[in-house]
Amino acid sequence: MTDQTDNDGKKPLFYDPTEHRIRSFVTRAGRVSNAQARAFDEFGPRFTLPYQKAVLNVEETFGRKAPVIFEIGFGMGETTATIATGMPDKDFIGVEVHTPGVGSLLKLAGEGNLANVRIIQHDAYEVLTHMIAPESLDGVHVFFPDPWHKARHNKRRLIQPPMVALLSSRLKSGGYLHCATDWQEYAEQMLEVLGAEPTLQNTADGYAPRPDYRPVTKFENRGLKLGHGVWDLVFRKK
């Protein structure tokens, strides 16, 4: 997920007990390039799925039966496209609300002919709640979600108990939840929240080594060269 601000007055992500739901994004403006706009026109019909309050028939969508990986907040889509290219035997559903990112991944998917990628431009919480059947996912990726680093904004973070419980409910037994962050304090919170979910089990003694399938992005590589840390967490559904 890309960095987000609340300057536009939209409600940010947090679990609101008065509304009994989790907001998984902040609406913000973003410039769509000409190439991204063309990708919507050329590749949108093939790779995008409309949001609906009905369970998605995944096998019908992809035309086959294969393991399904769900990604929340794919940013500009480079990592998603790289992973999908390297795992043609798996199908990937990416959810992102920001139009430039959707256009970018559409361009990558179309030019790479990634038949195993589908995109939903909508709130991930609602997609999970209404479109994804319980115990149907083989994996979930949440890479570099907004850290909301100011203490008063911590409640807006994606990885909180209600969202983790929902994610786990959609995983098959043995399925995995892989989170990654470059913000240490958020990593510590993730470890605490994920470790407290009774249906999940840590695959490592604390943080996990970066799995080979997750590529190092240019931004991440630049940070590593500057001495910044990156923390991966991989939990499995019991």
UniProtKB/TrEMBL annotation:
Alphabetic keyword roster: Methyltransferase, S-adenosyl-L-methionine, Transferase, tRNA processing
Residues given in the record as S-adenosyl-L-methionine binding sites: 71, 96, 123, 146
Annotated residues for binding of substrate: 150, 182, 217-220
Domain of life: Bacteria
Catalytic activity: guanosine(46) in tRNA + S-adenosyl-L-methionine = N(7)-methylguanosine(46) in tRNA + S-adenosyl-L-homocysteine
Pathway(s): tRNA modification; N(7)-methylguanine-tRNA biosynthesis
GO molecular function: tRNA (guanine(46)-N7)-methyltransferase activity
EC number, UniProt record: 2.1.1.33
Location of the region described as Interaction with RNA in the Swiss-Prot/TrEMBL record: 152-157
GO cellular component, one term: tRNA methyltransferase complex
Function according to Swiss-Prot or TrEMBL: Catalyzes the formation of N(7)-methylguanine at position 46 (m7G46) in tRNA.
Family named by the database record: Belongs to the class I-like SAM-binding methyltransferase superfamily. TrmB family.
Protein name: tRNA (guanine-N(7)-)-methyltransferase
Taxonomic source organism: Oxalicibacterium flavum
Gene name of this polypeptide: trmB
